[in-house]
Amino acid sequence: MAIFGTVATLEKQACPKKYGKVIEYLKTADLASVFAKVTPGNNQVVELEGRDVYAIFQTYTTKLHENARLEGHRVYADVQYIYEGEEMIGYCDAKDMIGDAEYNAEKDIYFTKADHQTNVILRAGDAAVLEPSDLHAPCMMIGDQKPVKKIVFKVKY
User: Span 141-145, mean pLDDT?
Assistant: First the structure.
């Protein structure tokens, strides 16, 4: 089940054994220095624990709702942290998926559809823990399209 909230919320609700490194990194790392190297299309990857736990620093412009795709993962959980800006993210359980989806094992991703989804707004300082059972449609605009700086942590499940 997904968790949405601040880093303090994650500290209280997320499994410390699984997500403790991510939470500690968010509390102690100099995120601004990494984001200084990030431009649209030029992400920066920081390994926290090799390929078992790593962070992808990215910047982009939010999408129109109709351009956001519902995605899922099988190997990694996502912890998506908004550093700057805001976006809406759609969420539903993988059991609500309609039909089959082609899985890309190299990128650990598949795109699918569902009967419904719940939309959650994430603002600077907010995060979402999305496990493999959680489908999600990230990067949706709120009002107008705006720039966002986000870190997507990949945590091997």
Answer: 97
